[in-house]
Amino acid sequence: MFIAMNRFKVYKDATQDFEQVWLGRDSHLGEMPGFVEFHLLRGPEYEDHVLYASHTIWSSKADFEAWTRSEQFRKAHSRAPGTKPLYLGHPQFEGFETIQTVARAE
Fold first, then answer.
1. For 35-85, what is each residue's pLDDT tens digit?
2. Dihedral sign for Cα atoms in the order 18, 19, 24, 25
3. The CATH number, out of the four listed (3.30.70.100, 2.60.40.10, 3.30.2350.10, 3.30.70.1790), of the domain defined by the range 2-97
């Protein structure tokens, strides 16, 4: 399993716009082999921003890498020109390969 995360430092006055971009977009993730699950996470609020993270779970790192090279990725990440900046700097990517998983016993 592979977990891909991007952290975004969203301007405090842009949180609604940022969330609407994510909630209203066509992600195309479900079209990809190896896609397991996606979460948009809202984290702590700081003086100048609110921390958000996109959290995607894949069956393997290879499946995630195939997503980043796909037409679906390009469609999902296209933005309308002229939109105002919603976050500070570039998102920070973090990728993790699973070492251990503990699940709730049924």
1. 999 999 999 999 999 999 999 999 999 999 999 999 988 888 776 545 678
2. positive
3. 3.30.70.100
